[in-house]
């Protein structure tokens, strides 16, 4: 039980660390006229294409990307572009309002909207990469980054991202339904673990007296203390040894490059398979497994998100036609708006309340994928299930997910407008 508790705590810390990056990037983009202009240039083709040239783009895209018609989405319409903005807003509201990554709901939402799983993954990765490039805040954190640590870690992440991309593409070549089932199973495991831990964390927080408004976000200390696992790994002398944290711990610390490569490979593999950028795994791995200080971890995390998401989205998905650019730009626009509104609402709402909503939102994604799985397994003849029953389960999962996330979004936006005078005063 202690092991699962530690894993759940690490995942929650990871979600919060990734949310801090998302919020920082959102502020950087929206407070710069130059970046807003670049955002407009990104969005213009998507808007024009989705409104005026939907049919023509739908016909031309297979020739432009990958040359395989099966890889393109089923439709290019104004409706799906608007849906992508709404999905982005919901994910942004979760990220900004709860201080924990809302990107977990994007791929399930896209798949529920009729987008193929591999396309949802590639599109989500590209959306993260575009956001990272436009709102790059690396220069603010470079003082705390260890370049050798980052470079060795990125070698592993490239290996992992390549492997993850190949796995997804090979499964899709075998059978698109098999690809969807695989991605769905990964999300069921990840969202189930995180969601049930978050729900337990919420009930535990309700019993305690500490329910201040900042509780949902959670801060990070320098993180100079290490557990037993990091101490053991750092004591293993397998050359080459990488030195880091020289400015934080006298003499710095050392760890074998092989552990950095393995960690990077895991982050890259997860990013390429799930389409979440990998940032949510970097923080717990660095702090709890490798023994890197939180200050150094933040800078390295930002750097790896840019390179891992960029490499995976372009080399593993874009050149094969697995990115729906209209959706990516819609999600980018929506998430920037949602993050700002969500972050403002935290000033007038207790942290314990939105912590409960986060648990429900993640569990909503879990229920969505869990109920979608029987139909996919039945289509693959792995289980025997009447199509009518499988379809009903799929519908229940979709409705449950959108009702939960939609209710949260309406509540946050309503709270924002009802407290507009108070927020203006602050």
List keywords for this structure.
2 strands; 17 helices; 426 residues; two-stranded antiparallel ribbon; 2% strand; mainly alpha
Number of domains: 1
Q: N-to-C terminal Cα separation, in Å?
A: 44 Å
Uncertain residue segments: 60-75, 209-223
Spatial strand order of the main sheet? 1-2
Q: Compute the number of helices.
A: 17
Structure description:
The chain has 426 residues and is mainly α. The protein has one domain. The chain contains 17 helices and two strands. A hairpin with an 8-residue loop joins strand 1 and strand 2. Helix 15 runs antiparallel to helix 16. It is globular.
Q: Quick gist of this model?
A:
The protein is mainly alpha-helical.
Write the layout of secondary structure elements.
Elements: H1 2-30, H2 33-52, H3 54-64, H4 78-98, H5 106-112, H6 117-134, H7 138-141, H8 147-174, H9 176-207, H10 228-235, E1 241-244, E2 253-256, H11 257-274, H12 279-290, H13 294-317, H14 325-345, H15 351-379, H16 387-418, H17 420-425
Antiparallel strand pairs: 1-2
Helix pairs in contact: 1-9, 1-12, 1-14, 2-4, 2-14, 4-14, 4-16, 5-6, 6-11, 6-13, 6-14, 8-9, 8-11, 8-13, 9-15, 10-12, 11-12, 12-13, 14-16, 15-16
